[in-house]
Amino acid sequence: MTANMWNYAATTNLQHGTDLTGFKVEATDGSIGKVDKQSDEVGSAYIVVDTGPWIFGKHVLLPAGTVTSVDTAVETIFVARTKDEIKNAPEFDKDKHTTDATYHEQVGGYYGGFLG
Question: pTM to 2 decimals?
């Protein structure tokens, strides 16, 4: 897992404290849903995406390192993952995501495996 997996890249031009809730999320091959929850805590930043009906309403945790850019004008977040990569990700666990370090390791390891 890379050190930057849980931090937003400087190139996203995201201002600390920006509320991303409700923003559309675009994978490299199309729309995947909307942001349901977020954290911009340094070293532990993420978005939780409600994927809606395309994979039966699954919620997924995307580490901030997967975000390539944020367009606040049109409220859209772009991520460097395909729909299938997100569809096959570990499901968001609302009880573990803030208390279980191994859960973050599992999610970070999954997404980190796609880094080139």
Answer: 0.86
